[in-house]
Write a structure and sequence with these properties.
The chain is an alpha+beta fold and 174 residues long. The protein is 47% helix and 28% strand.
Length: 174
């Protein structure tokens, strides 16, 4: 307040700040976070986020829990190496080299083992992203074990059919 010579209020200084745009931006951020969180949690593809500085897992979805067989609490703040999920250490080194050179992976073949020791054929996709507090890697892992087994069975059946067809042709030609 501003006072006159008799002590009465002669004026008032008021500051007003329009926060509409800030509120809209905050709401848009909350909406974006909800969409990403829903997509991350709701997909059937295993998704894992690791810290670039130490490769420790910082987040994962339920599909990753189901794929690898470890509860989330056992995987968070552990490195993929500590979990011993890679079947072939040389393949892990090749993947690391490729990812280091390109910063991303797409349809990258990998063999993992889950908590019970069962081996899985998988396809990896990965990319990097930065936040204000550091860099992260985003991994998508698709188990293609059943599809690959079916492909091998089909190839075996096709080879057997071709062999049988050759025999039939040989008999017909004689």
């Amino acid at each position: 307040p501003q006072f006159d010579s008799e002590g009465g209020i002669s004026g008032l200084l008021v500051f007003v700040q329009d926060v509409t745009s800030r509120r809209r931006a905050e709401e848009a951020l909350r909406e974006s976070q909800a969409k990403l969180s829903g997509a991350f949690a709701g997909t059937d593809e295993a998704m894992i986020i690791t810290r670039q500085s130490d490769n420790f897992i910082v987040d994962m979805n339920d599909a990753a829990e189901r794929l690898f067989g470890w509860p989330r609490s056992d995987m968070i703040e552990k490195s993929r190496n500590a979990l011993n999920v890679w079947v072939d250490p040389d393949a892990l080194q090749r993947m690391r080299q490729t990812f280091a050179e390109t910063g991303r992976l797409s349809d990258y073949p990998a063999h993992f083992r889950n908590r019970s020791g069962q081996e899985m054929e998988c396809i990896l996709a990965a990319s990097r992203f930065e936040t204000a507090i550091g860099g992260y890697n985003f991994w998508i892992i698709r188990d293609v074990t059943e599809a690959r087994q079916a492909e091998r069975r089909i190839a075996t059946l096709n080879a057997a059919n071709e062999a049988a067809l050759r025999q039939i042709r040989n008999i017909a030609d004689n």
